[in-house]
Each structure stands twice: as structure tokens, then as C-alpha cells.
Specification:
- This protein has 214 residues and is an alpha/beta fold.
- It has a single domain (4-211), classed as TIM Barrel, CATH 3.20.20.70.
- It is built from eight helices and ten strands.
- An eight-stranded parallel β-sheet has the order 7-6-5-4-3-2-1-8. The chain has a two-stranded antiparallel ribbon with strand order 9-10.
- Helix 5 links the parallel strand 5 (102-108) and strand 6.
Length: 214
């Protein structure tokens, strides 16, 4: 695959099979309770166990304390933890040291000056995901669709090796997003759904077919 892809908000075995068959790089399991893509530990374990060694498994969390995180990873085998809240660098360092898991940190990018946040989390994160919204004060309105980032604003970032592009990406604008931003890794979720929280296997497959050509 020319483009690396993470499909987030996986909730069924059919979803993960479509991701594996389409050669996605990562799946995201959502442990943020207010999300329509929230998955219970029992189901997450079933999907994770099936996906092991076939695709990288990411647990998506927001503003949890370390004991809550330990409870998740005690039940579900994961390759990465993705922090989608306002977690500090010091907290991420503590998590990484205690739990020995790779880390993805989501940061909100709205204006050019926000790009400086990348430097703050660069050393502690294995990947940094650039999005248009994160969970603040344990609240995120999922009724509002993700806005797309200003991709041209990101083109001049010199080192994109650890960066993942997210926010409003779909099959129709994927090529434009890559050409404008020059990113090599994307995260996609809601655009592959039939209704909020329910993915379409056909949409997953079609998106991944397109990604192989880029």
C-alpha cells in the first residue's frame, strides 16, 4: 500500500476482516464512552484477539486516569494507545514508562500556530495525529461532523514521518488531501459509516482500494 491507513471506530468482526483484507495498517477501538463507536471490553477483546499479528490494534481513550487505562489493557491486548483528550506530556511519559505501550497523541489543529504543538509531544509519541477536534473536559459533540483540516497549511511541515492526518477525510477528497498535505498516513472513521457508529464494509473496502493507488 502506498498510503498508510488507520480505520478508527471498529465495532464488529466484519469491520476488522475488511480492514485486514484491504491491507489497512491499524484499527482503532474506541473506549470513550460518549462516542457512538464506543466498544465494550468483551467485544473489544474478541476483535483484538482475532486481529493480533494481522493488523496493529489501537485503543482510543480520552482523559482517563492511569488505573482506568490499566483496566482496559488488562482485558484487551493492544499495540498502541491513542490519547484523544488534553493529556499532558508528563502524563504520557508516565503511561509509557509504566505500561510499556506505544503512544499516539491526537492534537487539535485549527490555525497555523497550532502546528507548534507537534514539537511538545514529539519525543514521547510514536505517532502524532492531527485532527480538528479533541475531547476537552470529557465532552465532545459527535453530532457535529469532523471538519477537514486546511491541508495546504500542513505541507511545509518538514518531518512528517510520525504524523497522521485526520479530520473530515473521505473517499472523495482523499487524493486532494494527500496532494495538498503530502502526508503518508491517514486516519478515517465517520465517512465510512452508514449511520453514526455503524461502519459499512463496502465503504471500508472501497476506501482501502483507493488508498492503494496513492
Amino acid at each position: 500500500m502506498g498510503l498508510n491507513v488507520k480505520i478508527c471506530g471498529i465495532t464488529s468482526m466484519n469491520h476488522v476482516k475488511a480492514c485486514i483484507n484491504g491491507k489497512a495498517n491499524m484499527i482503532g477501538l474506541m473506549f470513550y464512552r460518549k462516542s457512538p463507536r464506543f466498544i465494550k471490553l468483551k467485544k473489544a477483546k474478541e476483535i483484538s484477539d482475532f486481529a493480533k499479528n494481522k493488523i496493529k490494534r489501537v485503543g482510543v481513550i480520552a482523559n482517563l486516569d492511569i488505573e482506568e487505562i490499566k483496566e482496559i489493557i488488562k482485558n484487551v491486548d493492544l499495540d498502541y494507545l491513542q490519547f484523544h483528550g488534553n493529556e499532558s506530556c508528563d502524563f504520557l511519559k508516565k503511561v509509557k514508562k509504566e505500561l510499556n505501550l506505544k503512544i499516539i497523541k491526537a492534537i487539535r489543529i485549527e490555525k497555523r500556530n497550532d502546528i507548534k504543538k507537534i514539537l511538545s509531544f514529539n519525543n514521547v509519541s510514536d505517532y502524532i495525529l492531527l485532527d480538528t477536534k479533541i475531547v476537552k473536559n470529557n465532552n465532545l459533540n459527535f453530532k457535529i461532523k469532523s471538519k477537514k483540516l486546511d491541508w495546504n497549511m500542513l505541507k511545509k511541515i518538514k518531518n512528517k514521518r510520525k504524523l497522521i492526518l485526520s479530520g473530515g477525510i473521505n473517499s472523495e477528497n482523499l487524493k486532494d488531501a494527500i496532494n495538498a498535505s503530502n502526508f503518508k498516513f491517514v486516519d478515517v472513521s465517520s465517512s465510512l459509516e452508514k449511520i453514526p457508529g455503524k461502519k459499512s464494509v463496502k465503504k471500508i473496502s472501497n476506501f482501502l482500494k483507493l488508498a492503494t493507488k496513492l
